[in-house]
Structures are given as structure tokens and as C-alpha cells.
């Protein structure tokens, strides 16, 4: 579904990615783990067209998407749920969902909104509240719901567990599994590697802008070196 | 229910009747007062237009008066003896709006990547550049002398000569502009602007084309400014660069800030206050500007969000009226 080859990217003269190769097959959950500043977020931002790409190839459903503007990439079916949730604080829950819908040219707002509300009943309950009044977990649900409004085939979640209580993290990862079962392919970027590897099919470890290790999530989970480095065991 | 509903409905009717009565009394007032009301209406149109950019899209534009100048000079060049072109008022009204929109996009492109203070500085300069260009283009605009003797406007045969004629024209246009902007505010475009105002980076990441969104705000707002300028030109029948200084841009921005950013009702209140205030302060002669400044600072200190609360907007009023009329038991 998604193929990234030799991706080099950065911000102006500061190069951050030095050759990322990764692949996501349809229906898979792929996780990208790595230390702070390794280039996980930049990888996602490059895929969705938000970061300047120096060289490399990105293909989505067999179509090159490198260099396309973000709105075009979203329209082709790639949604990006940013790090730190990035909820539009002074808009209501429903207005946030609408903002996620604007790029969508196809199905009706009401139809998708109903699906999102079915998945996150708390959003429906609080649809007219200001987004800033929601708890961290609810805001993360809103952020995911907002990305779903674009009806993506590939959803990229950047640190969905950031700053959330363990109980809520479990809830969010349950949701990710549900999404995967509904047929959406997912890339989950996480610092919380243990949880991410548990639900993922395949994993990439990024280190200083390069893919250092990759493999089935189970293998990576049991890799002794990685255990020492990322899982603290 | 019963009685109280009838009383409430009568109250509503009384308020509406009072508004209509006040508006229809204006033409019978002395000419000076009609001119003040005309001036209020022009500033309402300008401020509601600028509010699209400042209030909804959240882009501070300090050069708005440039579009007003473009409209006014459109009329001056296309309906006067200057080049002996005498197009009808209504045609120039559309040309002025279109010219404004084009100027808006021209300003929009270079400032797309600028934010906050930088955007304010560049738009301010743009306003000045237009004024200085007009001032120096002697062959076309007569420079600082301005263009006099513009055609008397008429609308489908009805002459527009006295302040009262312009009062009716401006009243209709004000209602149209307010209704149009209100409709836009509620449309998906309006919601997208509000999202843009909240956080442009996030909005871009959601797959929204922020370039189009910003240019559209600039173009629509500038078109309203251009149309306002055409009316101004036809009303004064004289234009000169002096009418389009930075002070004027500032006044329109102040109307929005004092009234209530992003709120049409607030903008109307702001225009009334800021246009009427200097007039009633005439008695204080040399202290006028001082008092004006003190009043502005007081408002900003006491009500930083503007005179009119963001909750008291056009939508709120329309909802109130509608529920009172259709299903009064709910109120």
C-alpha cells in the first residue's frame, strides 16, 4: 500500500532523515519506534507532504506521492494524526470533526460523522463542548476521529499514547486494533515501544534518521539489544 | 404560556418596528445627520469586509484602505471627464469590486507565508504603496490634486445625488453585505477560516489547502472594500490620495477590535461608536483627539474582547427571534 525508499528529508539546511526505507501492506499495523529526535515524526510529515524532501521515493497504492501538496495526499487516502493531538482548542468537538472532513470529496459529512460517533460515543455526548474542555484521552479520541473524517485508507498516528494514563492508553490501543480490523492500514509512531510492538504486525526502529532494525513485531520485541535500548529490560 | 407569549411577541414586534421606524426617519433628519449615518454605513461595510480577513481567517491586515482606494479610483477613472469615460454606476460598482479582489490576491500572494507582526507590517506597507503610487501617477490620477467632477451616479435611472439617496443605497448594500458574510460565516468555508485562525499548521496537516483559503479571504474582503470605494467616490464626486491614509486603515481595524472581532453585530456597534464619537466631540475642539484616545484605551482595558460579547452575534439574534416566533414554549 505504502512504499518509502531512500527517503532523505529535513528542514532547510538541517537534514533529519538520511535514508528511510519502509513498507506498509494493506490491512497491516506498522509501528515506528525510536528515541527522541530519531526522525519518527519527520518520517510521517514527509509522507503527508508537510516536510521538505531532498530525495527518495514515496509511493501510495502504486502512485508516486512525493512532492504533492498535503491536501492532495490526504485526498488520495492518507490521514495524519499529529503528535500532541493538535486539537483546535477554541472550536467545538463537532467543528473539529468538520475541519477533518473538509478535504473529503465524496461521502456526506453526516454519514462519516455517525460512524465516528459510533466508535467514540463520548464525542457524540460532548459534540457541542469546546475541545479545550475535554480530557487528554478524549482529545486523543477527537484527534483520531478527526483524521477518520477524511475516510483514509492509511492512517498515521504520531504518539497516540503521549501524556495519557495507562488505562487510557489501553483504550486508545483497543481503538487502533478496531480500526485495523475495519480495514484501515496503520502506521503507529511510538516512544512507548512495548505497547506498540504488542499490537503491531511489523516494526521499524529508526535511529538518527536511518532505519536500524526492522522485522516482525514479535521478533523485534524479543531482540535482546533492542530490549536493552528501548524497553528498559 | 398564553399571555406571556403574546406579550413577548408584541415586545419583539415593538423592537422590530422601532428599528424600522428609526431607519425610515433618517431621511427626514437634517442633511448633516444623514451624512453621519451614511458614513457609519460605509464603515460598517468596510469593517464587515475586513473582518473576513482579520476576524475569521485571523490575518491582521493593516492596509485594507488600499482596496477602498482602488474602488474609489475605479469610479474616478471610469465615470468622469478624466479620460472622458462615463460608465454607469452599477457597472463600475462591479468593476470596482473585481479590481479590489484582484488587488487582494496580489497582496495575498506575497504575504501567504507571513504571520502576525510581519504580516501586519507588510500589509501596512502595501496600503502605503498604493496611496503613494496614486499620489505619483500624475498622468492617470492627477497626483495629489485628485480627480474632481466625477459623474453624478444613477441607479437604473434613479439619480443618486443627495445624502438621502445614498442612505437608501448604503442601507441596502449594508444589509446585503452583512447577510452575505453571515451566510459565509456559517458555511463550510467560514468554519474552515475559523480552523485556520486557530492553527494554520494543523489545518494544513488535515489536508486543507491553506493557500486557497487565505487568498479567498483576501479576495472577498478586498472586493467588499472595492465596492465600498466606488460608493465613496460617487458620493464625494471627488477623490484624492489624502482620503486613503494609514489612519483610515487603522480606523477600520479599530472598529473591529472595539466592536468585537469576528462578530457582525460587534462590528456594527464599533462603527457607530467610532464614527459618532468624533462628531459629538466637536464641542471639545482641540481636546477631541485626546478624549477619543482615552475612550479607546478605556474600552480596550475594560472590555478587551470588544464592546459586544462574542455570544451576542447575528446567529444568536436570529435563533432568539425564530424560537420566539415558531416555538415560543422553548424560550
UniProtKB/TrEMBL annotation, chain A:
Signal peptide range equals none
- Residue stretches making up the ABC transporter domain: 2-233
Q: State the UniProt keywords alphabetically.
A: Amino-acid transport, ATP-binding, Nucleotide-binding, Transport
Query: SMART domains from the xrefs?
Result: AAA
Recorded superkingdom = Bacteria
PANTHER family (alphabetical): HIGH-AFFINITY BRANCHED-CHAIN AMINO ACID TRANSPORT ATP-BINDING PROTEIN LIVF
Name-wise, this protein is ABC transporter ATP-binding protein
Q: Which organism is it from?
A: Shinella lacus
UniProtKB/TrEMBL annotation, chain B:
Identify the InterPro entries for this entry: ABC_transp_permease, LivM-like
Membrane topology note: Multi-pass membrane protein
Q: Which residues cross the membrane?
A: 12-34, 40-58, 65-83, 89-109, 116-134, 165-184, 215-238, 250-277, 289-306
> One Pfam match, by short name?
BPD_transp_2
Protein keywords: Cell membrane, Membrane, Transmembrane, Transmembrane helix
User: PANTHER family recorded for this chain?
Assistant: HIGH-AFFINITY BRANCHED-CHAIN AMINO ACID TRANSPORT SYSTEM PERMEASE, HIGH-AFFINITY BRANCHED-CHAIN AMINO ACID TRANSPORT SYSTEM PERMEASE PROTEIN LIVM
Its name, as the record gives it, is Branched-chain amino acid ABC transporter permease
